[in-house]
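Help needed: design a sequence for this.
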């Protein structure tokens, strides 16, 4: 039986938390983050979120997500898209997605062939649904 570690092991490099934008938070993400931080929604919105119309993202500080400091400071309350990374189902649709994600995430097994990677990811998803890392 395959395990996640066969295709991915996070190196805690923080590359996925860098950049000038972050994933967006859906309503469940927002509620979970508010609970995890133990603050009021207004405080969380003021301190941590960048709100553009209906789109809620996390603020960026010094080129990275405001919660990044040698790891995720809101791990249990992080958005589901953060938890899903890098084992995104789109990898299964297109080898180019695999190559792009593999190039940006050193935690992806760099030796494994695309077909074998997909075989294992499909097996894991059949057991667990979408994988949260
Ligand atoms: S998921 Fe990938 S890019 Fe993000 S910290 Fe882990 S190894 Fe680095
Ligand atoms: S919430 Fe955590 S995992 Fe997501 S981008 Fe920010 S620091 Fe990274």
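Sure. Designed sequence:
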């Amino acid at each position: 039986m395959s395990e996640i570690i066969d295709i991915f092991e996070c190196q805690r490099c923080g590359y996925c938390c860098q950049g000038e934008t972050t994933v967006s938070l859906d309503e469940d993400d927002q509620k979970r983050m508010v609970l995890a931080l133990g603050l009021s929604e207004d405080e969380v919105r003021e301190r941590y979120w960048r709100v553009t119309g209906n789109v809620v993202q996390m603020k960026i500080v010094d080129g990275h997500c405001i919660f990044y400091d040698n790891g995720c400071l809101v791990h249990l309350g992080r958005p589901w898209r953060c938890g899903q990374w890098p084992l995104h189902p789109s990898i299964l649709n297109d080898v180019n997605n695999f190559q792009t994600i593999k190039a940006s995430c050193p935690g992806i097994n760099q030796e494994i062939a695309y077909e074998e990677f997909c075989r294992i990811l499909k097996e894991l998803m059949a057991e667990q649904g979408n994988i949260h890392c």
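The mean pLDDT is 96.
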